[in-house]
Amino acid sequence: MLGRRLVVLAVGATVLLAGASPARAASDPPLSIDRAAALAVLHCPPSFTRSKTPVLLVHGTGSTAAESWAHSFAKTLPGAGHDVCTIDLPARALGDIQVAAEYVVVAIEDVAGRAGRRIDVVTHSQGGLEPRWALKWFPSTQTLVDDYVSLSATHHGSADAAGVCSVGSCAPAVWQQVPGSRFLKALNAGDETPGDVSYTSIYSLTDEVVPELPPPSTSIIAGGRNIAVQDVCPGRPVNHIGALHDPVTHALVLDALDHAGAADPSRISTATCLGLVAPGLDASDAAYLQTIGLGQAGLNTIVTGPKSSAEPPLAAYVLASQTTAAAPAPAPNGPSPAAPPARPATQPAGGRQGSLPATGPSPVWGIGVAAVALSLLVRRTTRQSRR
């Protein structure tokens, strides 16, 4: 393992030239997008001045970078020592995820080039799929990413996506998140955690969009560290959008970014369970996310976004790989070598695999969070006006 890491670091050192995007490997398929178009929607500070690893944030379905991150991690990570970049995926992440993933490829290359070192990637919901697709099918990105952290990700699909598409027409990206889609099969075939990257998947047993039952849990990444919020705080209710402002998810993300390897729930203080919103956020941030952020994502996904009658076809490089894999192997001259064992899904001690019943109140708790947050915001505004 040490030898592998040294090789990766050596390769990364040769391509990470400050101020220049690293060259892509010959094994990467050609980009189908205009690189300039991807750079135009990548938002970074003029320079990286903070001491810790820069972070690229990738948003979810029907949203924008500002709607997902301005009131969440783009607000808290700089205070924790991380420079932050965000990217607006095309068509509010409602188009072909394979195309959106190429935007993430360009973003990873550019941010790592600016930083002159490997970067971290933090994602929410569908945003967890684009970087994984990039890491799988554009292997040069594996040398540019240190930590990959997903929040409430649809790694193996969403029953909600199946419901939205049941009418026969929905956004291309929603088709691709239907459990069993061609896209998800291609994404999850073989190694789900390629490269020398630390993979952490954080999810909630009370997520109404990415439900964790029945097993297997959709947010589990085989070979990664999979942590339910309830592993840290039993009975804590966190809905889908709540992952963006919950103090436990923020603590787990920072733990992954600031330690070698994946997040470790044993390092999270039990006092974190007493918080309502993450440090650095307030009731107005939670209210925005639970109302404006969630509402815009839902409206664009179901009503105003692009629609198609079928899932987009797989990219040519995926089909070529599948054809190669399906081709019969020539007869060996000697005994076949033993196949390496598959990496199991790692799980913290006492962790849940999604087969346990959800703890805590019903997912409608998210509505209650919005109401409480709005109430607090109104009371604060009223007090300020009286002054």
Overall description:
With about 375 residues, the protein is α/β, with parallel strands linked by helices. It has one domain (about 10-320, about 345-355, about 360-385): Alpha/Beta hydrolase fold, catalytic domain (Rossmann fold). It is about 40% helix and about 10% strand. The protein is built from 14 helices and seven strands. A seven-stranded mixed β-sheet has the order 1-3-2-4-5-6-7, sandwiched between helices. Strand 4 (about 120-125), helix 6 and strand 5 form a beta-alpha-beta unit. Helix 5 (about 95-115) crosses helix 6 (about 130-135) and helix 12 (about 285-305) packs across helix 14. The longest helix has 22 residues, at about 285-305. The protein is globular, with a radius of gyration of 21 Å. The termini are far apart.
Output the keywords.
globular, disordered C terminus, alpha/beta, Rossmann fold, 14 helices, disordered N terminus, 387 residues
Short description, anyone?
The protein has 387 residues and is an alpha/beta fold.
Order of helices and strands: HHEEHHEHEHEHHHEEHHHHH
DSSP strand (E) fraction? 5-15%
- Give the full name of the CATH homologous superfamily: Alpha/Beta hydrolase fold, catalytic domain
What is the tally of helical segments?
Answer: 14
| CATH secondary-structure class | Alpha Beta
Low-confidence stretches: 1-19, 334-387
**CATH topology descriptor:** Rossmann fold
Mean pLDDT comes to 83
Shape: globular
Tell me the domain tally: 1
- Sheet with most strands: strand arrangement: 1-3-2-4-5-6-7
Alpha-carbon Rg, integer: 21 Å
Helix/strand-derived category reads: alpha/beta
Can you summarize the main beta sheet?
A: 7 strands, mixed
Q: Give the number of DSSP strands.
A: 7
Termini Cα gap: 62 Å
Share of residues in helices: 25-40%
